[in-house]
Amino acid sequence: VVEDDAFCRWVCKEPRSGWMGMLKTYLETEHGFEEPAPEAAPEMTAEEAEQAAKVAAARAKLLAKGGGKGGPKKKATEPEPAPTQTRVPFVPTTEWQEVRPEHVCPKGLQFRMDMKGGKNYARIAPGQ
Fold it and tell me: What predicted TM-score, i.e. pTM, was given to this entire model?
Protein backbone atom coordinates (compact mmCIF):
# COMPACT_ATOMS: atom_id res chain seq x y z
CA VAL A 1 0.00 0.00 0.00
CA VAL A 2 2.80 2.41 0.90
CA GLU A 3 4.32 2.02 -2.56
CA ASP A 4 1.13 3.35 -4.22
CA ASP A 5 1.91 7.07 -3.96
CA ALA A 6 -1.37 8.24 -5.53
CA PHE A 7 -3.45 6.16 -3.10
CA CYS A 8 -1.44 7.38 -0.10
CA ARG A 9 -1.89 11.03 -1.13
CA TRP A 10 -5.65 10.40 -1.56
CA VAL A 11 -5.90 8.84 1.92
CA CYS A 12 -4.10 11.82 3.48
CA LYS A 13 -6.20 14.39 1.60
CA GLU A 14 -9.32 14.28 3.84
CA PRO A 15 -10.17 13.50 7.45
CA ARG A 16 -10.70 9.77 7.89
CA SER A 17 -12.14 7.51 10.57
CA GLY A 18 -11.88 3.83 11.37
CA TRP A 19 -9.19 1.81 9.67
CA MET A 20 -8.70 4.53 7.04
CA GLY A 21 -7.97 7.00 9.85
CA MET A 22 -5.42 4.60 11.31
CA LEU A 23 -3.84 4.16 7.86
CA LYS A 24 -3.71 7.94 7.41
CA THR A 25 -2.01 8.37 10.80
CA TYR A 26 0.46 5.60 9.93
CA LEU A 27 1.30 7.16 6.57
CA GLU A 28 1.74 10.61 8.11
CA THR A 29 3.90 9.50 11.04
CA GLU A 30 5.93 6.63 9.62
CA HIS A 31 6.29 7.52 5.94
CA GLY A 32 6.18 11.31 5.89
CA PHE A 33 2.98 11.80 3.87
CA GLU A 34 1.25 15.06 4.77
CA GLU A 35 -2.12 16.60 4.13
CA PRO A 36 -1.91 18.64 0.93
CA ALA A 37 -2.04 22.42 1.31
CA PRO A 38 -5.53 23.81 0.71
CA GLU A 39 -6.00 25.09 -2.79
CA ALA A 40 -6.60 28.83 -3.13
CA ALA A 41 -9.93 29.85 -4.63
CA PRO A 42 -9.52 31.12 -8.20
CA GLU A 43 -10.02 34.85 -8.83
CA MET A 44 -13.54 35.74 -9.99
CA THR A 45 -14.44 38.29 -12.59
CA ALA A 46 -17.13 40.87 -11.84
CA GLU A 47 -19.71 38.87 -13.82
CA GLU A 48 -18.87 35.64 -12.00
CA ALA A 49 -19.06 37.42 -8.63
CA GLU A 50 -22.47 38.88 -9.54
CA GLN A 51 -23.72 35.44 -10.62
CA ALA A 52 -22.43 33.86 -7.39
CA ALA A 53 -24.22 36.56 -5.35
CA LYS A 54 -27.49 35.86 -7.21
CA VAL A 55 -27.16 32.12 -6.58
CA ALA A 56 -26.45 32.73 -2.88
CA ALA A 57 -29.49 35.04 -2.61
CA ALA A 58 -31.72 32.44 -4.30
CA ARG A 59 -30.49 29.72 -1.92
CA ALA A 60 -31.11 31.97 1.09
CA LYS A 61 -34.64 32.71 -0.18
CA LEU A 62 -35.39 29.00 -0.59
CA LEU A 63 -34.06 28.21 2.87
CA ALA A 64 -36.15 31.01 4.40
CA LYS A 65 -39.26 29.83 2.54
CA GLY A 66 -39.30 26.51 4.35
CA GLY A 67 -39.93 22.85 3.85
CA GLY A 68 -42.40 22.74 0.96
CA LYS A 69 -44.58 19.61 0.68
CA GLY A 70 -44.95 17.36 3.65
CA GLY A 71 -44.18 17.96 7.28
CA PRO A 72 -41.35 19.92 8.76
CA LYS A 73 -37.89 18.71 7.87
CA LYS A 74 -35.81 17.04 10.51
CA LYS A 75 -32.73 18.93 11.52
CA ALA A 76 -29.55 17.07 10.78
CA THR A 77 -27.54 16.41 13.90
CA GLU A 78 -23.83 16.01 13.74
CA PRO A 79 -22.53 12.82 15.28
CA GLU A 80 -20.48 13.37 18.40
CA PRO A 81 -16.78 12.87 17.82
CA ALA A 82 -15.41 9.70 19.32
CA PRO A 83 -13.44 10.28 22.51
CA THR A 84 -9.72 10.02 21.99
CA GLN A 85 -8.02 7.36 24.07
CA THR A 86 -4.38 6.93 24.82
CA ARG A 87 -3.31 3.45 23.73
CA VAL A 88 -1.21 1.53 26.27
CA PRO A 89 0.74 -1.65 25.49
CA PHE A 90 -0.52 -4.73 27.35
CA VAL A 91 2.25 -6.51 29.26
CA PRO A 92 1.28 -10.20 29.31
CA THR A 93 2.24 -12.79 31.92
CA THR A 94 1.34 -16.47 32.34
CA GLU A 95 -1.49 -15.45 34.72
CA TRP A 96 -4.86 -14.18 33.46
CA GLN A 97 -4.97 -10.36 33.46
CA GLU A 98 -7.82 -8.01 32.62
CA VAL A 99 -7.52 -6.34 29.22
CA ARG A 100 -8.72 -2.72 29.37
CA PRO A 101 -10.15 -0.89 26.32
CA GLU A 102 -7.01 1.24 26.07
CA HIS A 103 -4.69 -1.77 25.86
CA VAL A 104 -2.96 -2.86 22.66
CA CYS A 105 -2.23 -6.59 22.84
CA PRO A 106 0.70 -8.38 21.18
CA LYS A 107 0.25 -11.45 18.99
CA GLY A 108 0.05 -14.97 20.33
CA LEU A 109 -1.99 -14.42 23.51
CA GLN A 110 -4.86 -16.50 24.81
CA PHE A 111 -8.04 -14.53 25.47
CA ARG A 112 -10.97 -15.26 27.76
CA MET A 113 -14.26 -13.37 27.92
CA ASP A 114 -16.24 -13.14 31.18
CA MET A 115 -19.86 -13.02 29.99
CA LYS A 116 -21.28 -12.19 33.43
CA GLY A 117 -18.86 -9.40 34.28
CA GLY A 118 -18.35 -8.17 30.71
CA LYS A 119 -14.56 -8.18 31.05
CA ASN A 120 -11.84 -9.60 28.81
CA TYR A 121 -8.74 -11.38 30.07
CA ALA A 122 -5.51 -12.38 28.38
CA ARG A 123 -2.35 -14.34 29.16
CA ILE A 124 0.67 -15.83 27.45
CA ALA A 125 -0.28 -19.26 26.07
CA PRO A 126 1.19 -22.09 28.18
CA GLY A 127 4.37 -23.53 26.73
CA GLN A 128 5.59 -20.31 25.11
Answer: 0.35
